[in-house]
Specification:
The structure holds 3 protein chains of 3 kinds. Helices cover 27% and strands 7% of the residues of chain A. By secondary structure, chain A is α+β, with helices and mostly antiparallel strands. Chain A folds into 2 domains: 123 residues, Alpha-Beta Complex (Cytochrome C3); 91 residues, Cytochrome C3 (Alpha-Beta Complex). A 3-stranded mixed β-sheet of chain A has the order 6-5-7, with no helix packed on it. In chain B, the strands form 3 sheets. Chain B has a two-stranded antiparallel sheet with strand order 1-2. Chain B has a two-stranded antiparallel ribbon with strand order 3-4. The chains are: A alpha+beta, B alpha+beta, C mainly alpha.
Amino acid sequence: MPMCWTRRGTKRNERRRPFLALLCAVFFLTVPGPGQIYLPPPPAEQPSDYGKVILNSHSSTAGPGPVVFDHWLHRAKFTCRLCHVDIGFAMQANATGVKAGTNRQGFHCGACHDGKRLFEGRPIFAACSDDSKGKECDRCHSLGKWGVRKYNYDAFTAKLPKGFYGVDWMAAENKRKIKLVDSLEGISVKRVPIQAREDFTIKARLPWVHPILFSHEQHSAWNGCELCHPEIFPTARKETVQFSMFLNIEGRYCGACHGKVAFPLNNCCACHPLGPFWMAGKLGKTPDWVLFP
Amino acid sequence: MNRKACITLVLILLFCSSFLSQTGTKKKRPLPYEYGRVVINNYSEQGNLAPVVFEHWIHRAKFTCRVCHVDVGFAMKAGGTGIRAADNERGFYCGSCHDGKKVVEGKTVFEACSNPVNSADAKRCERCHSLGKKVPSDFDFFVFSKPLPKERFGNSIDWEKAEELGLIKPATVLEGASAGRNALPVQRDFALSPKVEGMPDIIFSHKKHTVWNGCELCHPDIFVGVKKGTTHYTMEDNVEGKFCGACHTTVAFPLTDCQRCHSKPVHA
Amino acid sequence: MSQPIMIVLFISAGLAALGGTRAIGGPSLRTAQSAPVKESWQKEFEDTCSKTQDAMTFSQEELTSLISRCDDLQPQIEKLDETRKKVYLRRLKMCRGLYAYVLDSKRNEKK
């Protein structure tokens, strides 16, 4: 249909032209790929709710109700790698398929929450234990229930440095306010660490967008290698993985963490700190990764 | 004008195709007892049976990969073999062992797919045709894996070490299926250099692989290149299930265990 | 307008026909694989394909002879019943493929 609309020389097509122009504009702005100027909106929730995961694959049918998992409490104590690599949690809500039965067997939540493992001198309460008398169930199965959670966000994060949005976890770790545990006895297997790659720049797709300075070292300190490679970033050659802000906003690539748990994507300067692309060379680093427009 | 519009449309689609690829997200990691599970459904549903659920961990403790994938002739992809009940009844494929007569570790192996089938046999059929059903198994994964050395990812079992310690003794021949074979000559291990600088070299243990797989399992179907260095492949190919990924995404230790391959000294 | 529809219908009909023929099963014969009397092709198959792990030690002539033995076995196996044909053709393919692969690698070494 658009083909005959664009034929020149007819009055009917002249009338249709503005409409066609509007159609093209809407298409290019919204469809992924061409829609590169899509800017990420700020997170809708408060920092205390940011990173909250509602797990609802089995609980509502079984009785205790959906589980509310707050990332902020666990990320102050453990690296991302410990849960997402060693224990094996998925990176999306309900994708892991946690069940009471598997928790009791020592998988997933039950890897720590077994009633025996000590943390900071105290035994961690057992998840989904048969003899909990229902007391501890509500600590996790707490959606819509008041007064059952032990830790309060404001009290917990009062002394932690704040950043663009909520807690600045990097600063908190640098200032030694939090110390992250990276290994779990009986679950983690020690490996000779692979030397983390150096930081590198990624030239953005659009020429007016500042290049991204990616800190490999910082990411691998929390995530190890396996969290991102090879599933999220299967790179052997950098240019073979092409992604965009739109895909990040969708929750892929960088968006697997940023926008859900790590700092939100509207914190532009955290990733795009440098000047325009022609300045990248002046900082002594030529772009290592070029995203094709 | 038609042609220009077509070209524009194709270009737009090419741009959009980036969001159709599968990378960029982390897949669900199967639990240790689920890893290596194969669902076979070529003909089951047509025969009013639930699809077959095959657990690799039970079988890999008892047989080398070669026995099933070369001597018996199973394919390397789910549904690739095209197993029929008739084949099993005649003593091929699953029926090579599951014939109601063979004895393994003092137990008679139950018969697969007998004919005729009556209602009393339904329970036996369900032992394999169990997708979506809660069927009790003779083997409990936790009891089975408790004495075995632990490893991360996959089945959470260090199969190599288990064999070294003599905790499992996979059979290398199957009576009736394997032709008389001599011992395998030792193959040389070699190093592969990764394309990404900074990643440790891959020490590929040809010896270990041939002890379990023989030669035909990999050559030439999975690794075609005759001269070393002529076959070029990347991690993306592996993730897609080609080359190393033929086994190391579904049954052998998964690709997330970087240092098992990317280790300058051989992982012993 | 009618032509694409005709093509789609034709392809769907073809696929349906394929699906239909696959559903037909064969007669059920209870024959044990480890029968006491081995047929001649079976003996030949075992003799030819039991040597795959020694493939690297054979000379090019020996490999060529093994490959031609595999090629001779192929028509014999194709005459068998559906089940044995399926099983042994795959095994023969792997066996012959390996010998050809090793022969290729030896020829490449010489170059």
